[in-house]
Amino acid sequence: MAKIEYNHIHKCITIYPQEAPHDEDFEIWGSLFLHSDEITINEYSAGADRHQIRFTYQLQTFNLNFEHYSESTWINGEGFDAEHLLAALTFYLS
Q1: Under a CB-based contact definition with an 8 Å cutoff, are residues 18 and 27 in contact?
Q2: What is the pTM of this model?
Q3: d(CA 85, CA 12)
Q4: Could you tell me which of 45, 37, 91, 88 has the C-alpha nearest to residue 64?
Q5: How far apart are CA 74 and CA 51, in angstroms?
Q6: What is the pLDDT of residues 12-61, one digit of tens each?
Q7: 72-77 and 39-46 strand pairing
Q8: What whole-number distance in Å separates Cα of residue 70 and Cα of residue 82?
Q9: Which helix (DSSP H) or strand (DSSP E) does residue 80 occupy?
């Protein structure tokens, strides 16, 4: 479905989907990408050029982001503890 890489310098997980999702499809695409027993999706928000799904993994909150104009997709952690779980989350999603 997608290639993912942990970027320890920028403290994010970069996602390279085989085909970038369209704006109207991102919520479904993200739900399928994050579908697992250890992840809980909390909310979805859509903006003019960026869409975001907030989710929880190991009691920490993360954001799956999609920017329409650059067709960039990435995950960032909300807070220090979440950032320390990014490598583990990368492994889990692989």
Answers
A1: no
A2: 0.92
A3: 10
A4: 45
A5: 11
A6: 999 999 887 777 889 999 999 999 999 999 999 998 889 999 999 999 99
A7: unpaired
A8: 25
A9: helix 80-84
Residue 75 to residue 14: CA distance in whole angstroms: 7
Angle at 51 between CA 45 and CA 54, to 5 degrees: 55
Helices (H), 16-79: 26-34
Mean pLDDT of 55-77: 94
- Per the DSSP assignment, residues forming a β-bridge with 57 are 39, 60
Among 6, 66, 60, which residue's Cα sits nearest to residue 38?
A: 60
CB 62 within 8 A of CB 78: yes
**What's phi and psi for 62, nearest 5 deg?**
-130, 165
Confidence of residue 70 (pLDDT cuts 50, 70, 90): confident
Q: What angle do CA 23, 27, 30 make, to 5 degrees?
A: 110
